[in-house]
Structures are given as C-alpha cells and as structure tokens.
TrEMBL record, chain A:
Gene Ontology molecular function terms on file: ABC-type maltose transporter activity
Origin species: Cryobacterium tagatosivorans
Keywords noted in UniProt: Cell membrane, Membrane, Sugar transport, Transmembrane, Transmembrane helix, Transport
Name of the protein: Sugar ABC transporter permease
Membrane topology field: Multi-pass membrane protein
InterPro entries: BP-dep_ABC_trans_perm (IPR050901), MetI-like (IPR000515), MetI-like_sf (IPR035906)
Cellular location(s): Cell membrane
SUPFAM superfamilies listed in its UniProt record: MetI-like
Keyword NAD applies: no
TM region positions: 32-53, 88-114, 126-152, 164-186, 207-229, 266-287
Chief place of localization: membrane
From TrEMBL, chain B:
CDD domains noted in UniProt: TM_PBP2
Sequence similarity: Belongs to the binding-protein-dependent transport system permease family. MalFG subfamily.
Protein name: Maltose/maltodextrin transport system permease protein
Membrane-topology annotation of the record: Multi-pass membrane protein
Subcellular compartments: Cell membrane
InterPro entries per UniProt: MalF_N (IPR035277), MetI-like (IPR000515), MetI-like_sf (IPR035906), TM_PBP2_N (IPR032550)
GO biological process: maltodextrin transmembrane transport
Residue stretches spanning the membrane: 36-57, 63-81, 93-114, 307-332, 344-364, 393-415, 442-461, 506-528
Lineage start: Bacteria, Bacillati, Actinomycetota, Actinomycetes, Micrococcales
Keyword terms of this UniProt record: Cell membrane, Membrane, Sugar transport, Transmembrane, Transmembrane helix, Transport
Keyword Transmembrane in annotation: yes
One Pfam family recorded for the sequence: TM_PBP2_N
Domain of life: Bacteria
Amino acid sequence: MATKTTETEGFVPVKRPLTLKRWFAATGWRHAIGLFMVVFSAFPLLYVLSASLNPHGTLTGSNALFSKVGLDAYARILNTPEAPYAAWFGNTLLIAGFTALGSVFLGALAAYSFSRMRFTGRRTGLLTIVLVQMFPQLLGVVAIFLLMSTIGDIFPAIGLNSQIGLIMVYLGGALGVNTFLMYGFFNTIPASIDEAAKIDGASHARIFFTIILRLVAPILAVVALLSFISTTNDFVLASVLLVDPEKQTLAVGLYRLVSNPNYADWSAFSAGAVLAALPVMALFLYLQKYIVGGLTAGSVK
Amino acid sequence: MSIIIDEDVATEEKPTRRAQQAARIAEAASAGLKAILVKIILLGLVDAIALYALFVLFAKGQWIVFGLVLAVTLVVNWIYFSPGKLPAKYLTPGVIFLVIFQIFAVGYTAYIGFTNYSTGHNSDKDQAVSALMSSALERVPDSPAYAVTVVDQVGTLSLLVTDPDGDVSIGSNDQPLQPVSNATLEDGRAVAVDGYTSLTFQEVVGRTDEITKMAVPYSDDPNDGALRTPDGRNAYLYLSTLVYDEQAGTMTNANTGVVYSDTGKGAFTSPDGEEMLPGWRINVGFDNFVRAFTDEGIRGPLVSVTIWTFFFAGISVASTFLLGLFLAIVFNDLRMKGRKFYRVAMILPYAFPAFLSALVWAGMLSESFGFINQVLLGGAQIPWLTNEWLAKFSILLVNLWLGFPYMFLVCTGALQSIPEELQEAATVDGASPWAVFRLIKLPLLLVSVAPLLIASFAFNFNNFNLIYMLTGGGPRDAEASVNVGATDILISMVYKVAFTGQTRDYGLASAFSIIIFILVAVISIISFRKTKALEDLN
C-alpha cells in the first residue's frame, strides 16, 4: 500500500494493465463518491442561483432550473420600499464590521496581558473566560432585551432599537469567545522580542501596538473574520434588539421576507441571498486555510 | 520563556523605591508625545461621554446607576492616569463590556426567573393603577365644556385648558393639569402659551387620532378623572368607572360594585378569582420553576424538548463527524486526481451563510411547492416540515449538509498530521489496512478531534438559527400551554416563550434559561474532566 502512494493514475504498471475494473477499484469509486457529494453540496446553491435569475416570483416558478434567465429579481429586491435590502446590507456590514474590529481589539488587549504579564487573579481571570465561553450570550437574551429597554428609557441612543447598542452587546460577548484563541497564539511569540524592545527603550504601548500586533496579525485576521461571520449570522439578538425595518440586519430582514415561503417573492429573496452570500463565500474560499487552521487551534487550545 | 516573563513582573514584587522610580522615569521617557496625546484625547472622550451620562442620570433621578457610572469612570481614570497597573490597563475595556452584557445578563436572567415579568406584568404598581384607571374612563354626563387648545412641545402634545371659571391650566398624558399664568387669551379662551406651539385647525385634523386618544389627568389623584377632547376644541371630564382606594389597596368597579383586591399575585383580583390586567411585577419565588415541573402543559413539552435537544446535538455531531471522516479517508489518497476540485465543492455549504442555507432549504422542502416534492419526487405531497418525525429528519439532514464540510476539513488535517512511519511500520508487521485504521489512525485522530466534537456538540445544543429558520420549531404541540413545537430545542423554546405570541412570559423564559445554564454547566464539567483542558492553564 504505502509504496503505491507515489504512483499516479497515468502510470501504468507493465504487468497489470489498467482496466476499467482496476481503475474503479483504485480511485474510480472515490470519484463516484466525490461526484455524489459535489451534487449534494452544490445543488442547493445552484438552486438558489437559478431561483434568483428567474424573473417570476413564486416558489413553484423556481422549480424549473435555469429555464428563464433575467435580472428582474435583483432589481426588485433592491427597489422594494417594504424590504429595504440595501439598508439591511449596509447595516450588516457596519454592525459586523465594527463588532469584528472591536472584538479583535478588546481580545488582543486581554490576550496580551494574560500572555505577557503575571499578576494576581490571572489564573482566575483565564478560568472565568473559559467558563464564560461555555455560556453563549444567546442564553441571556431575555435579560439583555430587558436591560437594553431600560437603558433605552434613559439613553435612547444606545438602548433598544439602536445599532450602537447592538454592537455594544456583541462586544460584551467578544472577550469570552476570542481571548482564549488569541492567548494561545500570543504565547507562541517569544517574549525575548518584548525584552529586546524594552531594553531599546520602547514603552509597553509601543511594544504592543507596533511589534506584537504585527506578529500576531494572522490570528487577528482569523478572529476578525470569525467574529464578522458569526455576527452576520446572528438572528436572535438582532431580531430582538432592532425594531425598525430600516435598522435591521440581513438575517432578520430576509427571514421576515420569507417567513412563509409559499407566499413570498421567492426570486427576490434568492437574489438577496446570492448578493449577500457572494462576498462572504469569496472571502471564505480565499482564506479557507487560515480559517480551518484557526478553528482547529481555537478549540484544541 | 517563563523565566523571562517573570522578570517582567519584577515591578510588582515590591521592588525598592529607587527601582520603582527608575522604572517610572524610563516608562515616561519611552512614551512618545504622540502616544500621550492619543491617550489624553481618548480618555477625554470617555470622560465627556461619562459626564453627559451622569448629567442625564442626575436629571432623571436614577441614583443607583448614577453611582455605578461615577464609580466606573473614577476607576477608569485612576487606572489610566496612575503609573504601573499594566494588566488593568489592558484588561479594563474588555472587562467592562463583559461584565455589563454577559455576566450581569446572567445574573439578571436569574433574577427575572424569580419574577412574574410578562405581558400584563411589566411595570410597577403605580403605573398599573393609572393604566387601569385610564382604560375605564367614561364621560361624566353633566360635565361642563372646557375650552381647549392643543399645543405641541417637541412632539409631545398637551392640552391648554380654560375652565368655565376662566382659569387656565396645561397638562399632557403624563403630566396632570397645572395652572399657567402667562397664556395669551382670545375671547376668554387661552390660545397660546410660551414654550409651546399651538396647532392650527389643519394640524388638529391631521393628528385627530393622536388627539382623541389623549387623556389628561385632572389632578395627581387618579380618582379625580381626566379631560378628553373629541374635536380639539372642547374637552369634557371623564371619570374612571374604577375607584382606587390607596389605603386598602383595592380597586372597586363603580358599575358592578365588585371589589378587586391586591392578593399578592401582582394583579387586582376579584373574590371569584378574576384578575384585572395590566398587573404589576412582583417576586414570585420558585413559582416559574414549580410551573415548569408540575404544570402538565409545560412539563410535557419541556421534557420532550430537552430530550430532543440532546438527540439533535448528539446525532448532528455523530452524523457530520462520520460523514466527514469517511470523506476524509476517501479523498486522502494521493493517486486520486482532482482532489482540490472536490475539496472546494464540498466546502461550499460551509462557506454559504448558515441562516440563508436554512431559509433556502425551507423553500426546497416546502410541502406543496418545494423543489424536492415537485421535481425530485414527481409531485408528491410529503410533509417534510410539518410532520413531527419528518421535520426532525429534515432538520438532521440539513444540519448534516451544513456541518459535514467542517468535519471533513478537520479530519483531513488530522489524518495528514499522523506520521507516515506509523502506518509503514504496522504494514511491515503485517497489519491489514482495516487494523491500521482502527488501531492506529482512529485513536490518534480522536485525540486531536475530540475537543472539536465537544465544541460542535455545544454549538448544536444552542443551534437556534437552523431550527427557527427551517421549521420554526413546528409542527406545534397542540397539548402544550406554551408556544412549543416538536422540533424546538431549548434555546428556541426560550425565544418563543419570551418574544412571540400573545403573551410574552419573560419570567418563565428566564426560568427555562436557568435550566439550560445548569444543563450546560453539568455538561461542561463532565467534558472538562475528560479532556483536562484546564490543566494547561498556568
């Protein structure tokens, strides 16, 4: 077995000619499984692409794949006043973007202090973060809603129905989720670098911002991306905290749009879904190595 | 490495004064002017916002919050302006958010779980009394006509009232009538007053709905009634048919003579048990938990939802892992061509935003119009999402679609990191490929993948999006007294009890949350014991 691993399909051993049967036994069946999986994986995505190109709106009309091709549905989703898609898109980018930036910054600050400094309460702090990680913010959604409606009575700018408020809530969950992942990565940067900079007269802020942050850039990118994706996907907090349609995010808006798929404008929804998914998928496929590496590192520690 | 770090701490282990001084001077000398400026500007911004917040809180008389904000602001300034305290400087920003929106939220959930906070019980007793009184207003038959002018102050409407004796007063929905002296009079009717804009006739017509809904309390005592105007010109005295006796704490219906008393349940209750709503918020102790475990209409769904949550999470992890592992083995053969293509194609479901996937699948699985029934199954009417068992199957299938790429990637990585020599040695010793896999590869793989499986279980345990967007938790359980369906998991049940339907029962939802907290805590303790992840913390 092991000696054969370097053999390629095109290499034909002299004694045993490559018959279809032998090809199938070696790698052919793998291709069969692969094709089946490709259909299984890609089919729903092709379906949604086809539905988005269908000018007619209904679910039934979307069943004949690629029978009609037009961009009417894209025009509809962008020009429906009751479904302010462009606003949802912008809101999602803004909210997820600021949340990602804030999460990375807060997480990096905390990870730096846990990784480089020894202080009383450090172990307790790390333990607390591991524990907090176990309880997603989702579970406290009732309390967060009531808290935000109380805050809204006093400061309407950051209370219920405020995007700034929602970002603040997300940042509250940031430390628990990201610090540990970053802490592990910070530990892999030798502390002798800090020392050298310190001897050269750099302050702690300068060491952190100009040296360490650059060395840990890969993990910052991973955390930012993961945070961006999870914020984009969040429905619970966004649906509870944002009331006005123009303030909502894609997840909430598109869900409301097709809460009953039988009667919804399915093509318009599909067009919205394609527009929303394309940038995410492009980014994801481009960065897949880092993301997978980051996911593995994060959970394993 | 740790030795070097320990040197870093030297400042904290009571160094000599000279050393402290030297460190301070060095630190100050090393920080550039720009850095100091940035620091001062940032802190200035924080302080400005805090000052504004304090001002508002002071004006609204929120003393507890005022104290907290003041304390936090002082502590933040102290931390950033005093030398040293490096860990605090780096931790404070994150910790503030963590404490408010996660740790406080947990504590507040626990508190709400012990109250009757819900639709009809969401304010204090005074507000409930005035809401009840104003909901039962009836016009006094012989009420004199009060000449009124509708005036506006930054969007809030008020009535400028001239009573039959010629005295002028002003009041709004929240503000009982107060005398005014500087009103402009016209034919014995006050038509304008400083600080308010009088509405023109057209404006009155345009805002008729808003104006006819107004009820301006006559005085501080709700029993004195309120003024209402049908046309924006004349107002009449309305008295509530309810009479509130503050001493006895009872509410009497003047028409029927029924006395509703405060029985400590958060609402005025008549002798035969009828409750007047809105009531108010009170602590109910363990009532919500008692209800959850004894009320048949809640206990039944709670138990079945809990069981389904575990099954759903467990089967999801098992199915995605097995499929992912199988595919990883299948495609981990260097002889195979086009592996990159297959890999990218199979990552697609993972890259597509998850909430959209669930919605797309919901459309495809639709009973009468969906692609699966109409095209693949030739017009069958299979209730994929509305039959209890098929809905569960659909959810597991869609979750398999969503989750296998991740497991595939992870397992591929883990398989490739197993040293080739192990396999070679085993083959030389005569082990069959199956034995190599079962006895060597699988155990090594599990070591690196086990924590991910636990994480995946934890994620699916609270996989709200999939459930809510695919089936909405349905089909609904007809026997349950709460809005719960066959495919609901615990977290979606909490959401539905708290935020959907006619009554929003925050108290019961929080009690459910606490139950989830306890379950999650138990699971975490067990998994920590197994993985011993905590040993690596040092």
